[in-house]
Design brief:
By secondary structure, this protein is mostly helical. The chain has a domain of about 170 residues. Helix content is about 65%, strand content about 10%. The strands form 3 sheets. A 3-stranded mixed β-sheet has the order 1-6-5, with no helix packed on it. The longest helix has 28 residues.
C-alpha cells in the first residue's frame, strides 16, 4: 500500500530547513496578509505590546505571564496562516491560561507558592491543584472574563488537545483513483484558517479587557492614557469582522 501514497517529505538533505523555508513562502505569499482581518490581528498584537507603560516593583510574575500570552497568540496566528490548525489550538489554549494566570498575578504578586510548589526532589512544579485554585479565584472575582477565558481553553481542548482522526485527516488528499498523499501542511478551506486568525485576535482583546478591569482593583501596572479609546476601537472592529469571518462556518 505504501507505494500508492505520496510521501510526506520529498528527498532532501535537510527536511527541517526545507519545511521552514516552505512555511516562510506560505506566510509571504498568502492572500490573507492583504485582508483587514490580518491587519486587525496585527493591530491587536501592537496594542498588547504598547498597552502597559509602567510597572510596579513586584509586577514580574504578571509581566512574565502577560508576555507568555502574547507569545502564544503570535504563534497561534503564525500556525493558522502556515496551515497547522491543531498547533493553532494548542497555542490558543496556552495563551488563554497564561492570560488567566496574569490576572491572578496582579492580585498575588509576592505569593510565589500560589504559582508553583517545590517537589520532594527539590524541583518546582506547576500542579493541577494550583491551576484549579487560580481559576476558582478568577471565577469569583471576574466571572464574565473568567468564563470567556475558560471557553477558549475548553474549545481548544475539545478540538486538538489529543491526536485524533479529524486533525490527522487534514493532512491527507485522496484522488478518485483511490490514491492519497500525505502532507506536512493541512488541507482545509481557507475560511477555517481565517476563523482561527479572528479567534486569536478576539482572545487578545479579551485578555486586554480583563487586564483593564483587574488593574482597577490591583494597580500593579499602569496602562497607556488612551487605553480605553484604543480598546473600544479594536473591540468594535473585532465584532464587525466576526460577522464577515464566521457567517459561513
Amino acid at each position: 500500500m505504501w507505494n500508492r501514497i505520496k510521501r510526506l517529505f520529498i528527498s532532501s538533505p535537510d527536511h527541517i530547513l526545507l519545511m521552514a523555508e516552505t512555511e516562510n513562502k506560505i506566510l509571504m505569499q498568502t492572500d490573507v496578509r492583504n485582508t483587514e482581518l490580518y491587519i486587525h490581528t496585527q493591530e491587536v498584537f501592537n496594542f498588547m505590546n504598547s498597552s502597559i507603560v509602567d510597572t510596579g516593583k513586584n509586577a514580574h510574575i504578571f509581566i512574565t505571564f502577560f508576555s507568555f500570552a502574547q507569545k502564544h497568540l503570535m504563534l497561534a496566528a503564525l500556525s493558522s496562516i502556515r496551515r497547522h490548525r491543531s498547533q493553532t489550538a494548542f497555542n490558543i489554549r496556552q495563551a488563554s491560561e497564561a492570560g488567566a494566570w496574569a490576572i491572578f498575578a496582579l492580585a498575588h504578586p509576592d505569593e510565589h507558592g500560589k504559582f508553583a510548589k517545590k517537589s520532594k526532589n527539590g524541583v518546582f512544579e506547576a500542579s493541577d491543584k494550583l491551576r484549579t485554585k487560580m481559576f476558582n479565584w478568577l471565577s469569583a472575582q471576574y466571572p464574565v472574563g473568567s468564563s470567556s477565558l475558560k471557553g477558549f481553553k475548553e474549545r481548544a481542548s475539545l478540538q486538538s488537545v489529543h491526536a485524533n482522526i479529524i486533525d490527522a485527516w487534514r493532512g491527507v488528499k485522496v484522488t478518485n483513483e483511490g490514491k492519497f498523499s500525505v502532507s506536512f501542511f493541512e488541507v482545509v478551506d481557507e475560511k477555517y484558517y481565517k476563523a482561527d486568525l479572528w479567534m486569536t485576535a478576539n482572545l487578545g482583546i479579551g485578555i486586554l479587557g480583563l487586564v483593564n478591569r483587574a488593574v482597577e482593583d490591583y494597580p500593579l501596572v499602569t496602562l497607556c492614557s488612551d487605553f480605553k479609546e484604543k480598546y473600544s476601537t479594536l473591540e468594535r472592529k473585532n465584532e464587525e469582522l466576526r460577522e464577515k469571518t464566521l457567517k459561513n462556518i
